[in-house]
Amino acid sequence: MHEIDNYTFGTKEAKPEKDSLVKRMSRMAEKYKEEGMRRTVECVLLLHNKQHPHVLLLQQGQGQNAVFRLPGGRLRPGEGELEGTRRKLSSKLAPPREAQSQTHQAKWMVEEQLAVWWRPNFETLMCAALACSSPALAPCRPPRLPRSSLCVRRRYPYLPAHVTKPKECKKICMVRLSERQVFAVPKNFKLLAVPIFELYDNAARYGPVIASLPHLVSRYEFAFVASVPAALAEAAPTGQAKPKPQQGDDAAADT
């Protein structure tokens, strides 16, 4: 695992959201009717700071409306997992094609699968809580939600026995970083290097998927490689300082 000082961080053109969260749920339901189960991939990229593992997370929004995500996204119908994973990583983290060179070109080394999460339906915890807290259901207490959560999607690290047609399959995979690499993040996102201890038992802030990462990577025995000064051949993208270990603001669970 290489040190954070080995990497260069910049920005690129913003990638605005297509629609609101409520509309996105509706759009995903329509896509399911046309294309079947949604397939998504999310990637764990690790580096170290002072010999402690940190995970690269994307943050969108600020304050109580902030959302943390692992880099990744939806695979196209018929697209291979390896091909799709590299495409999504380049879309989220690589410099624009016209700015890439042999020196800066991202090399995504996709390794083993760490976990699989399932979405049984397109409902959300927030919607379930609102329904449960209606006067007609007074005895039923809604689940306690993070105060900053807009809407938390239901996902499980197993496929419930009664579910025969899951709506989404999300695979979490490990991606090993090169010794030196250049990142460029859309301007409406922040790239954070979050220490493992900050994620542990912190689903209220990061969501259950990201909060499970300390357990998933605990089986690895990491070799921490110190930073070696080396001048890059070309100028790196500018506009964003290297991410440092952050406590961050109150944030919603991952979506």
Q: What form results from the Cα inertia axes? A: globular
Total count of helical runs of at least 4 residues: 6
Strand residue content: 25-35%
Number of domains: 1
Largest sheet: 8 strands, mixed
The assigned CATH architecture is Alpha-Beta Complex
Structural class: alpha/beta
Order of helices and strands: EHEEEEHEHEEEHHHE
What distance separates the N and C termini? Answer: 28 Å
What's the rounded overall pLDDT mean? Answer: 81
Low-confidence stretches are: 125-152, 232-236, 249-255
Supply the CATH class: Alpha Beta
CATH topology: Nucleoside Triphosphate Pyrophosphohydrolase
**What is the CATH H-level superfamily?**
Nucleoside Triphosphate Pyrophosphohydrolase
Helix content: 10-25%
Concise description?
The chain is α/β, with parallel strands linked by helices and 255 residues long. It has helices spanning 21-35, 81-93, 125-132, 196-199, 203-211, 213-217; strands at 7-12, 38-49, 52-60, 66-69, 72-74, 109-119, 168-176, 181-186, 189-195, 251-252.
